[in-house]
Amino acid sequence: MNTNASTKLQQLFETRGAIKTIGVIGMGYVGIPAAVLFADAPEFDQVYGFQRDSKSSGYKIGMLNAGVSPLKGEEPGLEDLIAKVTGIDGGENSGKPKFTCTSDFAKIAECDAVTLAIQTPFANPKDLIPNFTPLIEGIRNVGRYLTPGTLVVLESTITPGTTAGMAREILEEESGLVAGEDFGLAHAPERVMVGRLLKNIREHDRIVGGIDAVCTGRACELYGPVLTKGALIPMSATAAEVTKTAENTFRDLQIAAANQLALYCEAMGINFYDVRTGVDSLKGEGITRAILWPGAGVGGHCLTKDTYHLERGVQQLGPDALDWPDDIASLYVSSRQINDFMPSHMLHLTESALQQIGKTMTGAKIALLGWAFLNDSDDARNTPAEPFYQAAIAAGAEVRVHDPWVDPETAPDVPDGADITRDLEAVLRGADAVVIFAGHKEYRNFVPAEVKTLCGCSHPVIVDGRNVADPDEWISGGFVYRGIGRGDKNGHAV
Ligand SMILES: NC(=O)c1ccc[n+]([C@@H]2O[C@H](COP(=O)([O-])OP(=O)(O)OC[C@H]3O[C@@H](n4cnc5c(N)ncnc54)[C@H](O)[C@@H]3O)[C@@H](O)[C@H]2O)c1
């Protein structure tokens, strides 16, 4: 650490005083709750949500300024908090909003701290080259309007090495200032789950990694006020990047372990859920045998890509130092592949069930229930329902899609011709097979007899990808049942 530079930066922070004005770049699942929670903290005076006025996302600016959430899944407290900090609720901020959304990036110059919560996808995970174009544009805008003594924090999930590497270089190039001397730079990864955004930000511990100790300290000043239960965990910027990518990689790995075991149980004619209960019962000091749930596949923006950020990180930061056998694939990438296989397995289950009633995929009418990748959410990014849909259509099936949460107008990557509707009866009517891809609450209390009446045939198929249907009820109701991990039930007689 350069002591003179750090002293200079420390003095700049002291001259500026406490953080009062904050900018949050990127108004998505992460940026919106982060921004309104900053705005709700009495320690801060003003928060700007910066959103580029793009074709796909520009609509969020008007909605947020009107006090309305663009996120349509169940997000407890979010709608109210947006209304409060914009003053739309007629309360304390009425006429003087603490939060406003804008595409005028020049306002970054007014901010004491700027965070970035921009998407960080991979176009093609196999080449390990992320699409950082939106993030780079965001960082450039911050650099362009950066003033001495500002703190810049990347909240997006990024390849280890990005904060101290690419982000630092762009910010320095655009601003002519020096990171760690003229402005602060840190990574504080977001650890939220859609459906619990506000709760997670307030209650989870917050990893805060600056490029040096002064930057870490300043970033702790930014996050401390929004934490109600969570603790601040300081570390280096690169360690914070590895922590975030590793935590999602591990979750994906654990889901893959459950999925592989579910496939094994199906092959052996065993109920995965019995096995899970049995394994999980071995408890005691130092013993953890918890197993996650298997399912129809993993979706979302994060788990589908963060493994690749971690893999890329080690390639960039330590390729020569990595001791790894040439002939063994990465455990983490294998896990991704297992999870990516699950929609194909759903197709195989559907095909085998249809065969049992003398049908093939060609001409079969399939009711696909749940386009979002998560229960009771509108988040359909990288949904496993999409590869199933494409494969079923390619096999000649007619697929109708129901989702009570997803808005087909704003959902990403809806295939041409996929008419996602909220009319459940219309989707079920005449269906040969009902295939459940999301465990939305609307699908948890189905009455098999009512579904069968809508299907209108004597032995419709039910394929349960989220363990929401009781197999015995459906089988005794006349259905041909298939379920992930249900080797004990998948072969019953009609
Ligand atoms: N969704 C989650 O639950 C979650 C959880 C933890 C971490 N993350 C990470 O946080 C980051 C953001 O994820 P998200 O789910 O909020 O993404 P998102 O796609 O919902 O939101 C990103 C927003 O940024 C906007 N944007 C893109 N480029 C911009 C630019 N240059 N200037 C201004 N706005 C711009 C987009 O239009 C969009 O509104 C990702 O790196 C993700 O991996 C997400």
From TrEMBL:
It catalyses: UDP-N-acetyl-alpha-D-mannosamine + 2 NAD(+) + H2O = UDP-N-acetyl-alpha-D-mannosaminouronate + 2 NADH + 3 H(+). GO terms for molecular function: NAD binding; oxidoreductase activity, acting on the CH-CH group of donors, NAD or NADP as acceptor; UDP-N-acetyl-D-mannosamine dehydrogenase activity. Its EC number is 1.1.1.336. SUPFAM superfamilies: 6-phosphogluconate dehydrogenase C-terminal domain-like, NAD(P)-binding Rossmann-fold domains, UDP-glucose/GDP-mannose dehydrogenase C-terminal domain. One of its GO terms (biological process) is polysaccharide biosynthetic process. It comes from the Archaea. It holds the Pfam family UDPG_MGDP_dh_N. The keyword Oxidoreductase applies. Residues 367-471 form the UDP-glucose/GDP-mannose dehydrogenase C-terminal domain. It is an enzyme of class 1 (oxidoreductase). Keywords: NAD, Oxidoreductase. The keyword Oxidoreductase applies. PANTHER family: UDP-N-ACETYL-D-MANNOSAMINE DEHYDROGENASE. Belongs to the UDP-glucose/GDP-mannose dehydrogenase family. This is UDP-N-acetyl-D-mannosamine dehydrogenase. It comes from Methanogenium marinum.
